[in-house]
Amino acid sequence: MNIKLVMLLMVAGFNSGHVIAKDLFSGQWSGEQKNESTLTLRLTQVGQNVNGSYCYVTQNGNRIDCPPDDENNLKGVIAENRANVEFNSSFGGEKGHAKLEVVGDKMIWALITPPQKGEYYAPQNYKLTKVLKSPVSEKRIFETDKFNITLVNKCGSFESDCNDMFYLGIRKSDNSTISLNGKTLNDATGKVIGSLFKNGEITYAVTYNPLKLVVSKGGDILVDQSGQWINK
Question: Of 51, 67, 91, 180, whose Cβ has the fewest other Cβ atoms within 10 Å?
Answer without folding.
Answer: 91
